[in-house]
Amino acid sequence: MNIFVDSSSVELYGNNGEVCGATQIFPNRSSEGVEVYSLGGKTKATIKYYPLSGIWNNDIKGKSSVLVSLSEEELEKTLGDEFSIYTTTIPTRASQGVTWKFSDPEVLEIVSQDETQTTFKTKKVGSTTLTATSKDAKAKKTADLNVYGKDTSNIIKDLTNFRTTGSWYVKKGAYVGNNEGDGFTVAEQTNSDQKSTYNLEAEANLIDIGSTAGIVLVSQNEDPKKGSIIANVNKNGNYRVFVFTGEFDDNGNPKVKNLIEGTVLKTKDNKYNLKLELKGNHISYWINGELVCDTNQDYYKKGRFGLNVFGGTTEFKNVRFNSTTSIDYTNVEGSGLTFDQTPGNLHAANDSYVVNNGKQKTGVAISDQQIDINKNIYTLEIDSKVLGDWHADNPANGDTVGIVLFSQSDNLFRDGGIVANVNKWGSYSLIAHVKDENGNLKEVNLAGGKVYEAQYNKYKLKVKLEGNRISFWINGELVCDNIQQNYYHTGKLGLIVWNGPSEFKNIIITSDQVTLLK
Predict the structure, then answer these.
(1) pTM of this prediction?
(2) Where is the Glycosyl hydrolase family 32 C-terminal domain (predicted)?
């Protein structure tokens, strides 16, 4: 290989020109070193390095300095950091090395210095301007340094004694994490009481292009990669809840197991409000107030809480942590349906109901509301969401949401009823579960079809029961118009899912008394 490097590009020629490539680079003037490395196994090479003279005769004459170049001009460091600045005096025939002066000498000190490199150490939180002056005092250059502290006690009251990997510091009321890979800050607080519900909230501002912000829970030690669960989101709204299993592959990379992944609406300002609830082994995760994960995990019972960044810088504000005595709520205040008597596979999550009986299983919750179509006309409206990835080529943890009509008992599949449902791909059906002449339950397909797949798995369901006729709307589209059924006149309403969790909220039920003609 032949490699040519100048002040703005790198060109590579291999196998006598059979392979070639070039790219632009933008180094500072003080970047004059050469480093050779290899990856994967042993490498033997003969390396020759030699300078080439330029064809342009525009070198600066004489040895008087005209410019000082610094490798860094805007620096952000934390208290106790050591860092280096490389210096070059132009022309290179001039005496190299600089003299430093600080606007606030209490902020940092010089650890070591030679003609091309100075190593500093920060001593105090604050700001200072570094001025580098050439040996002949004819050229100067400045750099600005901000030093931040690591004490979070003034901005985070509920989590203490953090242990960090990556760069973490306090800046303008925010806890800032920065790392090219995973960076963690793990507190000493744990979910020690399995009878309590733990809540951790944080406002995350994702600064860099590749930034990802996350919450750490049940970390088994100070290094979450050795065992923990992470709930995160990136700048594009892609989220993931996954497990660091504590195992590592042959290359030393941690093994992970996805619990759920998906997408929420991307924010314009790259700010996401994260909230996580841990109740025993049950995890609920909200992004900007939207429930995106409601699942169980069987990996870890207890562990520490913390924060996570990946691929850049994220600012965390309003970090709040608390625990309360666990209560199994089966009602949402103001909801049109209540589930005190037979909640089945349902639980309340803030302002939503979540129904879940696990993968490849049907989950059912029968409400307390009894209906009688001989007496009333009913309209039921529900905002539903299949929790998980909304892309059709990546199945979620849940796949189907629906409404139960005329359930004859708390056991729909034993005693019968009617189901109006839709799956995440937009296929819908209206099915009656009725008994045959032998008393065995059978399915009768009343209607079916397909609507457009909804973005983010959100389906607004509406059912109208008028006499023995059923009308069914999905996202405002009438898909079943006055479908006749002669099986049931009374029963209960309910919710139904298949293959994992789905959310139901904003439930409204109205009824109008039937007017009998004389």
Answers:
(1) 0.81
(2) 1-46
